[in-house]
Amino acid sequence: MCVPEFRTLLEILSAVLVPVATLFYILGILRGTILPTKATWLVWTVLSTLLTLSMYEAGTLNLQILSTTGADVVVLVLTLRYGKAWAWSTFDVACIVLAGTSIALWQSTGDPLWGVVFNSLAVVLGSFPLFKEVWLNPEVEKPLPWILMMVSSICILVALRQWSIESAAQPLIYLFVPGVVVALTLFPARPQLAKF
What we know:
Number of helices: 7
Shape: globular
Order of helices and strands: HHHHHHH
Radius of gyration: 16 Å
């Protein structure tokens, strides 16, 4: 049948786009045109690992999350060296505490479905320090790597063989987060908000 083969190709394309996006991101870091947020990348690396585990337990593991987890580790290592200095605001701490709470809720249920839901929620909450930074300083990120991540997420969403919360939550979140970053980098004219 043609459809399963097409879906398999889309899932592979999704997984391949992640290291391509990561390569552009790494080049931006090394050139100094991207200044990653340490808090966000630390949280994302932990959460992508936990999300991978919860998706494995739920039987919905896909190639995109596997590829992303590996890429997150590489970016985190570079971020610790070249990223924005540690500056934990109350806002950053609140986002991380909320992300940690969602992990604790998953552990309290022991249910893989809730693991995927709570870990996906934690990814969004852990992204808010980045959203804030890009809102205030859109020049710290470039849209190309994030656009490639969006395309990767669209590919994996189309490749889903069965739609369920467990299978769709991660790709939807991985479409949403880069979408916000792209919007903030491409449309930077906005009033400054009070410091969070």
